[in-house]
Design a protein that fits this description.
The protein has 274 residues and is an alpha/beta fold. It folds into two domains: 165 residues, NAD(P)-binding Rossmann-like Domain (Rossmann fold, 3-Layer(aba) Sandwich); 90 residues, ProC C-terminal domain-like (ProC C-terminal domain-like fold, Orthogonal Bundle), CATH 1.10.3730.10. 57% of the residues lie in helices and 13% in strands. It contains twelve helices and eight strands. The relative contact order is 0.10. Bound molecules: NADPH dihydro-nicotinamide-adenine-dinucleotide phosphate (NDP) and (2S)-3,4-dihydro-2H-pyrrole-2-carboxylic acid. NADPH dihydro-nicotinamide-adenine-dinucleotide phosphate binds next to helix 1 and helix 4.
C-alpha cells in the first residue's frame, strides 16, 4: 500500500487495525498513530515500529488517509483541533466512530472533504475483521479503492449505499465480537459446572466456534441446514436447541441488536447537537 496513513487515537480499535495491517505486509514506515499520552503510544510503537505523535496536527502532515479513531464523545473537539491542517492537507478522512454521520464529521472539519465512514471490528487484529463502509459524495473512485484496500488488509469489506445502514452493520458486526465473547464466557462457566477444567472448556468452546464459523463460511448449505445436520433426532443437540428456542434466544438476539442500532442513532442525535 503506497499510502501514508495516520490514526488519530491509538486505542483498542486502532491497535487491532494496525496489528492486522502490519501482519498483512504494510510497512510500519507508512503508519502513524497519535494519542495525548506517550504511555498509550509506547506499546504500539514498540510492538509495530510505527511512528507515533502526541500532536495530532503534526501527525497528519503528509498523510494520504487520516483515520479518526477517538471515542465519539470527544470527536468534535478533535475535529476542531484538526480543522485547519486537514483543510490544508485534504487527505481522505475515514471515521470509525459509532453513531456519527459523515456530514457531521465533515462539518466539524470545515466542510468539502472526502469522508468515508467505516464500522470495523476488533478481529481485524487477526485478519478476520468485518467492516462496513459508506462514502460521502466527495469521495473519488480512487479513494474508495484506497479505503477498500486499507480495510481489506485486515478482513472483509462491505460497502453500503445508505449511510443509515451502518447502524445495522454496527449491530451485525461492529459490536458483535462481544456477543460471541459472552457466549464463550457462558459456555466456559457451564462446562465447568459440568465438571470440565475451565481452560479445557474454554479451548473446546473456542475451537468449536472457529470450526462452525469456517464451515458456515465455506459450505454451500445455509446455517439452518448445518444446524440440522448436528441434530440427531431424539439426540442431545436437539434437546439443547429446543431449550434455546423455548427460552426465546432468537428474540433476545433480535432485541439486543435492535438496541445496539438504536443506541447508534441516539448517539448521533446526542453528539451532533440536533
Ligand atoms: N472497540 C471496538 O470494538 C470498536 C470501536 N469503534 C470506534 O472506534 C473508536 C475508538 O474506539 P476504541 O478504540 O474502542 O476506544 P479507545 O478508548 O480504546 O481508544 C481511543 C483512543 O483515543 C485516544 N485519545 C483521546 N483523546 C485524544 C486526542 N485528543 N487525540 C488523539 N487521541 C486521543 C485515547 O487516549 P487516552 O486513553 O489516553 O485518553 C485512546 O487511546 C470509537 O469511536 C468507537 O466508536 C468502532 C468499531 C469497533
Ligand atoms: O461499543 C461501541 O460503541 C463501539 C462501536 C462498535 C463496537 N464498539
Amino acid at each position: 500500500m503506497a499510502t501514508n496513513i495516520t490514526f488519530i487515537g491509538a486505542g483498542n480499535m486502532t491497535g487491532a487495525i494496525i496489528g492486522g495491517l502490519i501482519d498483512s505486509g504494510v510497512s510500519p514506515a507508512a503508519i502513524t498513530a497519535t494519542s495525548p499520552s506517550e504511555s498509550m503510544l509506547a506499546p504500539v510503537k514498540t510492538r509495530y515500529g510505527i511512528t507515533t505523535h502526541t500532536d495530532n496536527q503534526e501527525a497528519i502532515s503528509g498523510a494520504d488517509i487520516v483515520v479518526l479513531a477517538v471515542k465519539p464523545q470527544i470527536m468534535r473537539d478533535v475535529c476542531k483541533e484538526l480543522r485547519d491542517s486537514i483543510q490544508r492537507e485534504r487527505p481522505l478522512v475515514i471515521s470509525i466512530a459509532a453513531g456519527l454521520d459523515a456530514d457531521t464529521i465533515d462539518g466539524w472539519l470545515g466542510g468539502g472533504l472526502a469522508v468515508v465512514r467505516c464500522m470495523p471490528n476488533t478481529p481485524s487484529l487477526v485478519g478476520y475483521g468485518a467492516s462496513g463502509l459508506f462514502a460521502n459524495a466527495a469521495v473519488s473512485e480512487q479513494q474508495r479503492q484506497d479505503a477498500t484496500q486499507l480495510m481489506q488488509a485486515v478482513g472483509i469489506v462491505e460497502w453500503v449505499e445508505e449511510e443509515a445502514l451502518l447502524d445495522a452493520v454496527t449491530a451485525v458486526s461492529g459490536s458483535a465480537p462481544a456477543y460471541f465473547f459472552l457466549m464463550f464466557e457462558a459456555m466456559e462457566e457451564a462446562g465447568t459446572r459440568l465438571g470440565l477444567p475451565a481452560d479445557t472448556a474454554r479451548r473446546l468452546a473456542i475451537q468449536t466456534a472457529m470450526g462452525a464459523a469456517r464451515m458456515a463460511a465455506q459450505s454451500e448449505s445455509d446455517p439452518a441446514t448445518l444446524k440440522k445436520n448436528v441434530m440427531s433426532p431424539g439426540g442431545t443437540t436437539e434437546r439443547a436447541i429446543e431449550h434455546m428456542e423455548s427460552a426465546h434466544l432468537r428474540d433476545i438476539i433480535e432485541d439486543a441488536m435492535q438496541a445496539c442500532a438504536a443506541r447508534a442513532q441516539e448517539m448521533a442525535k446526542e453528539l451532533s447537537g440536533e
